[in-house]
Every structure is written in C-alpha cells, then in structure tokens.
Amino acid sequence: MARQERAIRTRRTIVEAAGAVFDEHGYAASTIAMVLERADVTKGALYFHFPSKESLAQAVLDEQLPLGAVPPHPCKVQEIVDTTFVFGQRLRTNSLLKGSVRLTVDQCAPPGVDHTGPFRQWSEHVVSLLQEAREQGELLPTVALRDTADLLVGAFAGVQLMSRALHGREDLAHRISVMWAHMLPSIVVPGLLVGLDSRPDRGARVLASLGSGELVGAQA
Amino acid sequence: MARQERAIRTRRTIVEAAGAVFDEHGYAASTIAMVLERADVTKGALYFHFPSKESLAQAVLDEQLPLGAVPPHPCKVQEIVDTTFVFGQRLRTNSLLKGSVRLTVDQCAPPGVDHTGPFRQWSEHVVSLLQEAREQGELLPTVALRDTADLLVGAFAGVQLMSRALHGREDLAHRISVMWAHMLPSIVVPGLLVGLDSRPDRGARVLASLGSGELVGAQA
What Pfam families does this protein's entry cite (chains A, B) (predicted)? Predict the structure, then answer.
C-alpha cells in the first residue's frame, strides 16, 4: 500500500515537472532529460510511468479539466462563471496548468497526441452546465447550447492568451470580468443578471472558500 | 524604376513564402533555407531584403493589420464587425496571414521579435473605431473603449484558434457570427441592433463588393 502511494506521488511529481517544462519550452523543444532533471526522479521511475514524450504530453493535457474544478453552485450559470475565474486564478500560479494550456493552444501540435482534447472536453462540460441552467429557467430562449459553449471556451482561450502575451496574465481576472459583462446579458434572463457575481476577485474568493488545502494545491 | 518594381515584387514573394513556412512549421522549426526554397529566389536577393530569420518574422507580423483592411462604413460598429469577418475569410486562404497569426498566438515567441505587436495594434485600431462610434451615438454608455476593444481582439483570437484546432477554420464564419450575436447587445444602442449585419456570409459579401482584384489577393 505504501509502495502504491509512493508510485502515485512519483507519477504526480513527474506530471507536474513535465507541465512546467512544456510551459517554458513548448512541446517541440522539450526533452525527457529536462523533465527528469526537474522532477528529480530516476530514469527507471519516469519510463515506468511514461514510455515517451507523447505520453507525458497526454498526461499533462488530461490534467486540464480536473484543475478547472469548482464547487457546485445552485445557479448553473454562476458555476460556469466561477469556473472561468478559478481557472484564471490557478493559471497564474500552477505550472502544470500553464503547460497544459500551452500544449492546447500552441499550433506546434505534438504528433500522435490529441492536443485538441481539452477544447472538446471544456465544450462538453459547459454544454452540460448550460443544459442544467436551461432546465432551471436561467437562460434566454435564444441561447443555442453548443454555440454558446464553444464561444465561451474559445473566447476564454483567447482572452487568457492575450493577457499572457501582453501582461504575463496579471490582468487576467479583470479581462474575464469584462468578458462576462459583455456576455451575460445575451445569455441569462434579465432577472438573474443582478444576482450573478462576475467581479474580478471572484476566483480568489471561491478558492478561499475551499480552505487552505485547495489554496496550496492552486499554488503548486 | 523597373528595377525598383522588381525589388518590391521579390520582397513580397519572400514575405509570402516566409508566412507560409512559419504557418506550417512554427517559428523555431522554420529555417531560411525553407523560405529560400519556397520563394524560389536567390540567396543574395533574400539576404538583401532580410538579413535574419527575425527580420522575416517581423515582416510577416507587420503584414497582419494591412491584411485586415476593409472598406470604411458609415456605421463604425459595422466596420469593426466587417473587419472580423473579412479577416476570418482571408485567414482561411491566405498563407501569409495564417503565418502572421501563428507567430502572434504561439507561445514560442521569436526572441528579439515583438510578436505581441499585432495584439496591441489591433486593440488601438478597434479603440479608434469605437471612439468614432461613440461620437456618432452608436454605443451604450456602459462601454469602456479599451476594455471592449481588448475583449473583441482577445475573443476573436481564441475563436479562430479553436476553429483552427477543431475544424481547420471551416466553421470560422459561423463562430464569428455567434460571437457578435452575444456581444452586440452589450455594445450598441438598441435601435442599431436590427440594422447591423453579422450573418456568417458577411465576409464573403464584403470581399465580393471589392471586386475580383481584391478577391484574388485574398486567395493568395
């Protein structure tokens, strides 16, 4: 049992190191040697978990949705809003998440790795939250679930990218807040607008409500 | 004079070849030899115009705004809308523009080249159009020019990126149309909404109105 726990921890160390290396160097210029050095594990341990650079990239991509998790909210549109702010907050500090996002948006796609997976998975996730929102009467009848979900995922990808390119993501929370100010009036019924919270510090407040354990996780 | 014209044409051939090479391979993996081969010019001609790979990248980035030009429209918000559709349309066929956009959004930034220039230039351009729109009474009082301009530029960057990753940009016009359906109600005064054209075929129609010369340019 202790051995199994150690294996899980080693695997996690390697995935986090790989995320940081992919974030700094991009997929093409990253090497397994760089990951080995950063993770400080044996070559045998790394190859036991990950036989190739492709499998490291896949593992980093697979972490993206779990790292975007937020507590459920009774208002499903608020839960979508919270997801963007928490994701944005973690993106400023979590190297694994940064690496995962870089693999998703860089055109230099790892051959043999489906780097578009996170786009599709996020779109599915938002569609299912919008579906719940619709059933609860939160949405305007004009909202087409897939179109709106894809717009939110695509626009968020670009907003974080522009914030990274121009300001190292320091103004990301403000930009996400602007995005919602422009999007929400065409998504939710008017009566819901006032009650929704899309202020820039929303992500920090949601993370704080999760307690210190989660906050430490977000800083990893 | 003939010699000068030939030099201008040669320079253009090289820039277009460089754009195509950067689009296919990304900045890091592109070489001057690849550009030489594609442009089919002499080494001397290439180095006369571009002493380095960085200067090629800079020239490709500098072409991005000119390639987004659209005819002026009396309604300035319509002119912004037209810019996104025409840009999207050209992005499907113009390799130079594709390469320029890839250099802008890929995190693998060419060292010594300001690859964030287009983000800032587009933002400036949209701010000045929004300023005119405001003076003409087109905008809601809640619109903050810089915030809204940055959102439009960032969201467009992400929407085209997601469309490229998932569908090779085939559905880009539809996605731009969805973006405007969600954005316009929070940007323009209600009386303007009905008159604005943000249907998916807007870009094709604007380009057609420019005549065949421009259309050929767009296919280059």
Answer: TetR_C_45 (PF21935), TetR_N (PF00440)
